Amino acid sequence: MAGILVYVLAKDGEFNKNSLGAISEAASVVGSIGGEAAAVVVGGDIADDKLATLGNYGATKVYKVDGPEGVAQPAVDAMAKVMNDNGIEIALFGGGLLGLEIGAGLTARLDAGVTMEVTGIKSEGGRIIVERPVLQDSQIVDVAFNGKAVIVGRLNAFEPKETGGSAAVEPVSVEFSEFSLKAELVTRGEQRGADVNIEDADILVAGGRGLGEADNFKLAEDLADSLGGAVAATRAVVDAGWYPYAAQIGQTGKTVAPKLYLAAGISGAIQHKVGMQASENIVAINKDPNAPIFEFSDLGVVGDLHKIVPKLTEAIKAKKGA
Amino acid sequence: MKIAVLVKEVPDAAVEKRIDPASKRLDRSGEKNLNPFDTHAIEAAMQLREGGAVQVDEIVAVTMGPDSSKSALTKAVSLGADRSVQLTDDALAGSDVNATGYALAKVLESESPDLILLGQQSDDGECYAVGAVVADHLKMPSLTQVIKLDASGDTLTCERQAEYGYDTVKVTLPAVISVGDAINEPRYPSLKAIMGAKKKPLETKSAGDVGIEAGKVGEAGSKTEVLGLNPPPAKAGGELIADADDDIDGTVSKIVSWLDERKLI
């Protein structure tokens, strides 16, 4: 074992928060398994002094690869080469769609073991063991690897930790596979139907079927405005056409971990829970006392959101104005 | 154009899932059904055929699984596939995602499709990204979570929602594409299609038939080991305001102070 290679996603020269968290996670375990926490960045034409700042999160080396960004397979080529050339046997991703794709491709390429949705990494006797929740998070399995390992974290499971320091930047020239270049990014990161990136919002007000009808999303929007937050939605209401898909939280939508997640009229089905359970504070307003969301909310309010939410909005406005 | 659609049988959603205490893996016994996500892949194939932008000569449903997985294939055929292929072999039991992808790649090699479609994820287990594994073994470009798919000549224009918003990606065939469930509304099979599905050709192949190396699949080829099973850390019970409607103003001021104590206002 010679350390861990972390894939770092970037767009417009800015690193993804989940990638930074993965670097910090790698840095915290390499001490006990040996080697270094290294990062790899593919494409993006990012300046060396910017790449070196990944050292602040615990990386000691950054492999810089010129190539297409935003698609998975060139990154598989790059990571396979870096790992083979440097005797690295563990690859780590902070999650996300590209992380899943690159991780899966790399698993095939390296004939490795893979575990996804990982929420923690530990070591025992110099061996890496990962924790992965299963069965709707009712159990956590400990998984070990026989040989090379690809670990894909659950979104927001790894917290970036600034430790100070600077990483050495090493350019790597990669000859990409012919098929890796046959998926070409035409446009990236187009925003549709929502002008806020709910994944970056500190405060989210989420609306579910309990709102009753599309027009009642106004209640959630007003509350979000008063709190300085953004609006999110459940799959059920997105499917019903009440709110845009870009705002969808859950298994087939976004995964978020804001400081405050206020759920209005959301029952808390597991498909929704997996997308928001990492939130720091969860407040739920629902008229059904048996709604599952009350099992994992920090403040549960059993009542009629149509009566409570407008008054809550006013009260918060008054409080802020005071 | 020949399209192969990968399908899978999964435990029926109504059946409670459990971990087999002996193997510590997901118990996959019980009532089975076609993975609901796969119906979107079949529908995407049908819409390419019916759309007329490209000529689709054949749609083949392919699965790997025990004998019972034939019913998933029959369902896939009732939804529009022309015929089906089942890869079944005791040696494949217990395959992890990499071994599964490798085995599927081998059976697909014998079909040489121009386009391989699959659903975004299977309902059970770890197989979110089996498409990307299959693609690497077949040396084909690949994209997952595609929610809009247009074909023209040997180029696919795909849209999907990635980390930063919607991406548009051009992919040259042959390719492996996983579709998201937002791509379409799968049709219901007609009674005639259901009745006719069992008469369509279903070919059964063994691992040896498609040149699968025994050491690379099954439990022996699995590169992960489940060491143990633990309950999740207990979450401290939250506070509850019951009967909030009885005193709306009181409830609101309780919520406001709760938020204020945590510096959220």
Description:
The complex is a heterodimer of chains A (322) and B (265). In chain A, strand 4, helix 2 (48-52) and strand 5 form a beta-alpha-beta unit. Chain A is elongated, with a radius of gyration of 21 Å. A seven-stranded parallel β-sheet of chain A has the order 7-11-6-1-4-5-12, sandwiched between helices. Chain A has two domains: 4-182, Rossmann fold (3-Layer(aba) Sandwich); 203-321, 3-Layer(aba) Sandwich (Rossmann fold), CATH 3.40.50.1220. In chain A, helix 3 (73-86) crosses helix 4 (96-110) and helix 5 runs parallel beside helix 8. The mean pLDDT of chain A is 92. By secondary structure, chain A is of the alpha/beta class. Chain A is built from eight helices and 18 strands. With 265 residues, chain B is of the alpha/beta class. Chain B has six helices and 13 strands. In chain B, helix 3 (97-109) crosses helix 4. The longest helix of chain B has 14 residues, at 38-51. The interface between A and B is large, with 88 and 80 residues. Strand 10 of chain A pairs antiparallel with strand 12 (224-230) of chain B, so a sheet runs across the interface.
